[in-house]
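User: For my dataset I need records formatted as: sequence, then structure tokens, nothing else. Please produce one.
Assistant:
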Amino acid sequence: MSNNPAEKPKQTQYSRSRQKHEARILQVAEEVFAQFGYNGATIDTIAERAGLSKQNMLYYFSSKHLLYQKVLENILGIWLDSMALLDQSGKDPASKLENYIRRKIELSRTRPNGSKVFATEIINGAPHLSEEIKTKLLSRFEEDVRLVESWISEGMMDPIEPKHLFFMIWSTTQTYADFSAQIEIILGKKKLTASDFEDATKLVSRVILKGTGLRR
């Protein structure tokens, strides 16, 4: 590494430029993979939508597989960082669970393409999901399950099966991303509004809290 101070601004500028291009590519790739799936998406399509040549695209990500892996890591990283049940605001189980649901639906609103990419990967048997990603997902899930089990053992909520509780929450909240087109057709809307997502949040929270014996 050079010790020349004059080179540091150039290195910083280069680093920022690279990060900007990579972020743009990942955003476009998420959209393309959500639309066409892994097999249907092509480097040419992603490069064209990102405003880059195929050669420039491959400079940042050397293969479609590598790019797809990065998209999966990004969306899962956001989920893991923002949805840990223990980290939700509120001191009581009801508040934490309600905020967990709220954040899940908010991610369906703000990152629908990421949700669709992950859902398609799982539906297809998770062929591209690395062991590292699986380990991180399982570790966070087990932490959340143990927390719910502690609430049950302390008599703070009904004796339900924690794992199926999370399966229910995931499927209910992610449907507003993965099957948004279906919901828009039924509601007669071109796009779901913030009000639609808020209505969903309130209803899902009410049903889950009542079903587990929790009250705010």
